Amino acid sequence: MNFNTKTVSKLAGLSIRRVDYWDRTHFIKPSVKEASGYGSVRLYSFKDLIQLRVAKTLLDKGLSLQKIRKAVTYLKKNMPDVEEPLSDLRFLTDGETLFVITKDKKQIIDALKSGQIVFSIALGAIVEDLKGELVSLQKHRKYEVTVRGKKYSVILHPDTEDGGYWVECPSLPGCASQGDTLEEALEMIKDAIEGHLQVTAQKRKIKKAS
Q1: Which residues does 92 contact at the CB level (< 8 Å), separation at least 6?
Q2: Which of 7, 45, 143, 207 is placed for a possible disulfide with 3 were both Cys, Cβ 3.0 to 4.6 Å?
Q3: CA-to-CA distance for 94 and 111, rounded, in angstroms?
Q4: Which of 65, 58, 72 is nearest to 21 (CA)?
Q5: Strand pairing partners for 98?
Q6: Cα–Cα distance for residue pair 133/116, rounded to 1 Å
Q7: Are residues 164 and 80 part of one domain?
Q8: 129 and 151 co-located in one domain
Q9: What is the DSSP secondary structure assignment for residue 62, as one 8-state letter?
Q10: What is the CATH number of the domain that holds 174?
């Protein structure tokens, strides 16, 4: 799956402005499709999404963005086999320092001799949490709209790549629309149903006349 900036912002718990800033400053860039100009769409991968969520978690634990950047730069330089540290490694932080959990546990123990409280970031939990949110995001939702005094069942689908929603009316084949918000999508499907009914009525008149 690929995700646009709007969807990534929602899932990672970051503002769109911050996601944009991290891309422009080469901190975490979209690996699927980069922005190519005003109005163009960025597309992020699931691995990108993990990096964004981990970075957000580190910030929430008190680590500054400057320190996270410095740590990532160091890890990329000294661990060339690790492609993306924020999604491939596990960390410990006390809000001041970032520790990498390696196979040599003694190094971690030595680093924590000060006895400060350390927060552990469970990467597996973040991955599973994101997967659960994605499943929820992908689920279609059923609604009812009223057109000409008659109720029609419609199905709403989130659009993870272009943003917003697209909606269809199963009882009227080919009748579909879209909108940036839930409310707009439901209003647009009403217009689509109205148009579908008008076209159907016209076809019946032509058929009768012939």
Answers
A1: 98, 99, 100, 101, 108, 112, 118, 119, 120, 121
A2: 7
A3: 11
A4: 65
A5: 93
A6: 33
A7: no
A8: no
A9: T
A10: 3.30.160.250
**pLDDT tens-digit profile, the chain (210 residues):** 789 999 999 999 999 999 999 999 999 999 999 877 766 789 999 999 999 999 999 999 998 999 898 888 888 888 888 888 888 888 878 788 877 776 665 555 443 345 455 666 777 788 888 888 877 776 778 999 999 999 999 999 887 777 788 899 999 998 999 988 889 999 999 999 999 999 999 888 888 876
> 151 and 165: one domain?
yes
The domain of 78 spans 5-134
Closest CA to 174 of 157, 197, 158: 197
Greatest CA separation for the chain: 92
Q: Tokens 């697209």 appear where? A: 166
Does 115 share its domain with 153? no
pTM of the model: 0.67
* Total domains present in the chain: 2
Check whether residue 18 and residue 120 sit in a common domain. Answer: yes
Identify the sign of the CA torsion 14, 17, 20, 26.
negative
Would you give the distance in Å from CA 23 to the centre of its chain?
Answer: 15
Q: Is 54 in the same domain as 155?
A: no
CA distances from 4 to 18, 21, 30, 41, 158 (A): 14, 15, 9, 7, 12
